[in-house]
Amino acid sequence: MKTIKVGLVGWGTVGSGVLKILKANGSLISRRLGAKLEVVRVADLDLDTPRSVKLPASRLTRDALSVARDPQVDILVELIGGLDPAEEIILAALKAGKAVVTANKAVLAVRGRRIFAAAARAGRPVFFEASVGGAIPVIKGLREGLAANRISSILGIVNGTTNYILSRMTSEGISLAEALEEAQKLGYAEPDPSLDLAGKDSAHKLVILASLAFGDWLEPRGILLEGIERISSEDILYTGELGYVIKLLAIAKASPGGLELRVHPTLLPRNHLLASVSGVLNAVYLEGDFSGPSMFYGRGAGAGPAASAVVADLMEAGQALNTGAGTGPGRLPSPQKLDRLPVGDIRCRHYLRVQAPDRPGVLARIASILADHDIGIASVIQRGRRKKGAVPVILMTHQAPEREMAAALRKIARVAAVKERPFRLRVED
Amino acid sequence: MKTIKVGLVGWGTVGSGVLKILKANGSLISRRLGAKLEVVRVADLDLDTPRSVKLPASRLTRDALSVARDPQVDILVELIGGLDPAEEIILAALKAGKAVVTANKAVLAVRGRRIFAAAARAGRPVFFEASVGGAIPVIKGLREGLAANRISSILGIVNGTTNYILSRMTSEGISLAEALEEAQKLGYAEPDPSLDLAGKDSAHKLVILASLAFGDWLEPRGILLEGIERISSEDILYTGELGYVIKLLAIAKASPGGLELRVHPTLLPRNHLLASVSGVLNAVYLEGDFSGPSMFYGRGAGAGPAASAVVADLMEAGQALNTGAGTGPGRLPSPQKLDRLPVGDIRCRHYLRVQAPDRPGVLARIASILADHDIGIASVIQRGRRKKGAVPVILMTHQAPEREMAAALRKIARVAAVKERPFRLRVED
After folding, report:
1. Residues B307 and B374 in one domain
2. Which of B197, B274, B292, B429 is most open to solvent, judged by the fewest CB atoms within 10 Å of its CB?
3. Rounded to two decimals, what is the model's pTM?
């Protein structure tokens, strides 16, 4: 049986997971692949921390580039994350004729165009199933399983941290701060959770999904991006009463005016399949013109799930090497220029929460500002619950473009009686 | 750009769907594949019925084998369904050196071992994404996306007809006969729906999923098989009160005693993700040792979804031809002998409905029979609703092996006061 030699850069949680799978399921994997996967070199700056899987010292190095260029390595796995030196390592491996497997969403989202150009020049594939949705084979599903379809929309819950926080706020009625503390205790949130909360991690993943679906390698710039930081227990309560669940969604849509890309907390009808995706689980919902709706669901994070995807990629890269077909460029994104819909033209229904004193005229003032911007009101909830002398006014609007909504919100914020910056959430139904 | 030549056998709904996708999305598909897919030959016994996509008469024939053997054909697509002559056509195409794409679950389930042996001899691949779950790329997900995992269980809703019927019985409170009539009017059920209702279609699909997951090519023989025919509105009502939804599930589990394979209506807790899969939609829920739980969801039937999967397979087969790698054997199931758990040893919790007169002693008699077989009772519902002088007694048992349950059911049926054959459903929680 042929041995396919793997170089691993980054011996952290996921790297250890990869070694663990290859140990635990090695014979199963060899039987399925018809070849043996062997990790022959491992690079990490920290070689001192004890790991669960031991490796002979001769295979270890602190010099990542030496692994990327090692002539014996067939496939390089990049698991250090971030932009630098990850890009340099990937490019060096491609230049040295290796297939590359990476779990690094940031480097693909920000430097993807350069990486795939280099892969095309080198005639070598880059696999990245673990970069979105952990164990869920959504990359494969999108670019192979649904390859015959024109994709019209993608809705993804692709960040486990924020989904855990929103799920706990919904099920337990706790505040965002409390849910975040819980998530940190459980290891579901980083000590600095800002990349997750602000939706940046989701935006990176959206770039990857949308690039595959729509055929141009996109970038994070110009994505409508809002995080979950300002969501209160009250919002969870009111949206629940209206029949909605709040989820941080990564959304890509082929609208007639162009491609729209956005990441924001979103009101989803409670009976939407994505509404039942709770806790740290991830799911991606896709619409194809012939396939209809599809959903892929599973564990988006953690050593096991991410390593499951990395090893699947290793098997795919390895299969070509094993059959003697070599590793051709694989399924690179096909270049195609796409028009982007200007953010101001994106149309949504909106949920609006305004804190205002419970006195006549305030609602009339808000309604008249919305009317000035041609934004129709679908329903209003106004309750007697006082909060620092003000009550929340909840409005659901009809569809309106971002541009008009943003202008109306600025004006509402300037109304003297309005106590806090008005808070707005977008609706998908 | 290279042209890859396709021969199509079976010009029915799915065949027409394939031609439609290639027409509608042809340029997109060529760009993604880097080659053009062209249907050069089509065989069908009926060439007279008008179809939406027209083909020149020179490409049409009634002789399927001539297409399977045509030297210009690179990939043969078999869409006639059934065992014969489908098997002969597939084997002829493999022998003639062609890659094969099929949507035929029956021929794979019953004759799969022979077909894959022939494929291995010929060194040619057989793709069959459309055979299970229509557009849902679950075959690919299972044998590629989750390839690094030891799969411990599969739960699938893989038959749209029965899922539609059970969903309507649940949401509308109508009878099975009424729901079936509705399904037939909508084209969701065949005029003779018995293959679907009895679970045989699901069993074929289970064979395919389980063969890929557990590595031996299995067969339908020996699967514990029960259909939905005897489910009443009362069962829907009582199981609903107990917090369950009834779904026809195809189940494969790697138990310590061996592999268990079964198809039967199943009580699922209402918060299980599969419980929200309604109407004609399909979903497959999988557990891998590193991936954790995954679910694949989408349209399991219809021209568009099935054709979406067939064209995806054509693209996969075509990719190898396009890159000059040829079409090697692909990912054939790896041969591995598996122990099967005897049906009598399968352990489940059970829901039991017995029609008996509302008088003291009957419940005691049933309970004592169950006790004789060491079957514990978890809960009992007994209501005053008379039905022909009898009331339903509903029991939920603790886990018990099939063997004991079957023996107890036979004894309960012989209790003089029991008016109807007792009805039993299995529980997954």
Report:
1. no
2. B429
3. 0.94
